[in-house]
Amino acid sequence: MLIGATRFVRYSLDSRQARFAQEDRRLALDFKIEMMGPHVDAAIDLRSDTVTKPTAAMRRAMAEAEVGDDWFGDDPTVNRLQDRAAELTGKDAALYLPTGTLCNQIAMHLFTRPGHVVVCEETAHNCGMEASSSAMLTGLVFRRIRAEARGLLTARQVGDALRPDPHDLTVVDLVTIENTHQIGSGSALPVEDVQAIADVCAAHAVPLYMDGARIFNACVVTGATVADYAAKVDAMMFCLSKGLGAPIGSILVGDAEFIREARRLKVMFGAAWRQAGITAAAGLIALEQGPGRLHEDHANARKLAEGVAEILPGAIDPAVVQTNILLVDVTGTGREATEWAALLATEGVLTTIVAGRVRMLTHLDIAQQDIDTALGAWRRVADRIGAEGR
Fold it and tell me: Is 256 exposed, middle or buried (0-12, 13-18, 19+ CB in 10 A)?
């Protein structure tokens, strides 16, 4: 009874804290929207590349999709999407899942054992935003490594992390890499560096998994194909709902046995789809049309970075912006990033805060003229903050 009561109290406290945090986020968003007034629908939304609306082609495909029941494996559109993803990556099989986080969680669950270690870069998504999920679902321990530059691990660092524990207590089951790396401003890891890490992992008989949520963005930078990257790792995932523009979904790829087990875990973790072909149809459009236009997002991101660097010298180095992610350090202005985000929202530009910096992502729904408008908002906020500081 005492244990049960303790758990209930802890659950009650955790739930209350979660509600308070959720309420704080809701109030902050309500504040931004209230300050924007009637202009909220016309906002330039740079919060993420997940905020895009389905294209006309996607909407038509969704409306006309041939569907079945994916729990039984007989949704033909889902099956076509999975077959196309496997073909594109050169892997045996693929699995269509609701989110990239679920892809990562299923993969880590399959590759590891409770109490064992996953090696990752210290700011990676799977050991940051997903850490609680990993603890609850699999009982993982993370060995976080600080990258030498922009979140990109080296083979030497991975080799050091894989040195055997002399006491034989700590066991590493998996190495993960993130490509592109979000906290590294969307930095891209070249194929040859992935190969070097893979060689180190193979020497220690440890599998290598890639969180490739934005792997197509990396391909634009490096000139490699998705299959080039997939060939170097034991399994990987990529998102359809980020730069590729689909409204929902991610893909997990690997060998046939891995995906067979992943399919079982999809059901166990409560993610079985029914007529998922409706959204898979949009995913097929995203796979065919999305990669070819990502260079536009990258060009818009560089233009935005150069403009912000001119407005706030030292806040961002445009040279590090390789893909579609910008992180602006506004600490030199004497104001918090949250205040900048709120003021930008009053000017019709939506952003988020990541690692203490203002984050902006370019995407399918952002045109060149939107970049000019966003830079105008940055100038007005900078002028306002400068005037208030005088």
Answer: exposed
Is 71 in contact with 385 (CB distance < 8 Å)?
no
- Amino acid 169: pLDDT: 87
DSSP secondary structure letter of residue 293: G
**Pairing relation of β-strands 250-254 and 93-97?**
antiparallel
Say if residues 283 and 249 touch (Cβ distance below 8 Å): yes
pLDDT for 134-162, tens place per residue? Answer: 999 999 999 999 998 899 999 999 999 99
Peptide bond into 352 cis (omega under 30): no
CA separation for the pair 40, 34 (Å, rounded)? 9
- DSSP string for residues in 343-383: HHHHTTEE-EEETTEEEEE--TT--HHHHHHHHHHHHHHHH
Q: How far is CA 28 from CA 24, 33, 234, 326, 360, in A?
A: 6, 9, 42, 22, 18
At residue 19, the 3 state secondary structure works out as helix
- DSSP annotation string for 47-83: S-TT-PPPPHHHHHHHHT-----GGGT--HHHHHHHH
The total of other beta-carbon atoms located within 10 Å of residue 294's CB is 25
Sequential DSSP letters for 76-127: HHHHHHHHHHHHHHT-SEEEEES-HHHHHHHHHHHH--TT-EEEEETT-STT
* DSSP structure class, residue 214: T
The pLDDT tens digits for 100-147 are 999 999 999 999 999 999 999 999 999 999 999 999 999 999 999 999
* Three-state secondary-structure class, residue 144: strand
Of residues 253, 240, 209, the one with CA closest to residue 121: 209
| CA nearest neighbour of 242 among 234, 252, 250 | 250
Token pair for 205:
């008989």
